[in-house]
Amino acid sequence: MERRRRRVSVVRPDAVVAAPPGTLKAPPGSGESHVSVIAYGPDDIFESDPVDLATLPELMKTSAVVWVNVVGLGSLDVLTKLGDLFKLHRLALEDVLNIPQRPKVDEYGEHQFIVARMPVAAEHLETEQLSIFVGGNFVITFQERPGDCFDMIRSRLRDNRPRIRSGGSDYLMYSVLDALVDSYFPLLEYVGTTLDRIDAEIHENAEKHHIKQLHSLKRDLVTLRRYVWPLRELNSSLLRPDNTLVREKTRVYMRDCYDHSVQALDLVDSYRDLASGLMDLYLSIVSHRMNEVMKVLTIIATLFIPLSFIAGIYGMNFDPGVSRWNMPELGWAFGYPFALGLMALCTGGLLMYFWKKGWFR
Fold first, then answer.
1. What is the pLDDT of residues 278-327, one digit of tens each?
2. Verdict on whether the full-model pTM lies above 0.70
3. Fewer CB atoms inside 10 A, N or C side of the chain?
4. Domains and CATH numbers, the chain
5. How far apart (Å, rounded) are the C-alpha atoms in residues 361 and 357?
6. Residue 297 and residue 300: Cα distance in Å, rounded?
7. CB atoms within 10 A of CB 218
8. Cα-flanking dihedrals φ and ψ of residue 5, to 5°?
9. Helices 76-86 and 90-97, interaxial angle, to 10°?
């Protein structure tokens, strides 16, 4: 997570500001929309990539579930046609294009609109908005750019797994949300591994780059919490008994998805606390190291105080010939060894005193 992620802009395009509700405006830099479809039932499956939008009404009539996946938000005509075909609410289509949206669930009569953030990498925090429409027999997903975490779902559909092939659109919605929630765990595992490595390095030898890494991780964890916390509320909303689009047998699986989102949130909180604790540990180690340096310097300075005093007295050069009290040691044969011995005695006495006080422990 040391790599800097692309920051998500929260500034709306100028054409959307104060525009009438339901105004569609493609996000800046969006690619052309690529539409694929998987239409399936218990006994058959049809897959087309890309798909002709004109074939979708017939697929809606002949297939139990139709999953339309749109990659890229730059083609407004594609979004408008899908909105007309599936009778999607104009405000929901506007939210698909107004990036970023807070993860949420909105009900629009016969269909529901879900927004979540989907991780796109396992070793650095980078996400994109995933918008999901769920109706009686269709699921439509909108992605900002290519790449997702739904390959396992596609494989299960192609392998004729009976649970998902006969589960209905609500079970497909659960599968998409469960894959999205599970995609956070490799990222959280990487965060945990990085924190363990930094913990070991700090105990061995705390360096300046550790505090930078910890600050970056903590900021990413705050951002992750802002994404994962609404996921828990989102799953909780889908579990409400008054939600008619989610059948009772699917709620069992939705509860499992809810548990995974709670587990992810607990990991985010735990890692954030661990990052804060490691920052405190780093500051304590650096402070202790500074105290050790200051203690050594203080001892050295204290040892030289009496030495400087003695050297200063004997450096005044009073003439002993004028008075017998003017430093008679200058004329004494052992005056120089006496001065050195006095300095050594003072130094040894101070060292003994410091040792008894425990300053060297």
1. 888 888 888 878 887 888 888 788 888 888 887 887 777 777 777 777 77
2. yes
3. C
4. 34-284 (3.30.460.20), 288-357 (1.20.58.340)
5. 9
6. 5
7. 18
8. -85, 160
9. 150
